[in-house]
Description:
Distance between the termini: 19 Å
Strand content: 35-45%
Number of strands: 9
Low-confidence stretches: none
Largest sheet: 7 strands, antiparallel
Number of helices: 1
Radius of gyration: 15 Å
Amino acid sequence: MKxxxxxxxxxxxxxxxxxxxxxxxxxDGATIFSWSDRSPHTVIMVDVLAGLVQVQEDTANRxxxxxMSESQDYEYTPNPDGAIQTYKLVGTRWFPVxxxxxxxxxxxxxxxxxxxxxxxxxxDYSF
Length: 127
């Protein structure tokens, strides 16, 4: 993610760098980064041969009492109704992809914005 172009958060920019080409395992945590927010996910499918991973959005319940602040603590639980996203490994980066109805092939649908190994939620109240 490029700071100022793909993300408005220095933390998100730094957190997406250093991602390796290691395949995650089923049940691993993942964080998807957006402009300034972050959302927690769980790995629900891994296809090593195709280099594909699917993640499903988790439920994040805020457990602190800090109000509209930078300091936020959450408790994460799997959400069987959460949105599912697919990522494909291209070199050493994970790109969001979708399956083309016309060709049946996966096509990129954005820039790398995921990090595996940890769930993290952050809501930026300044927007």
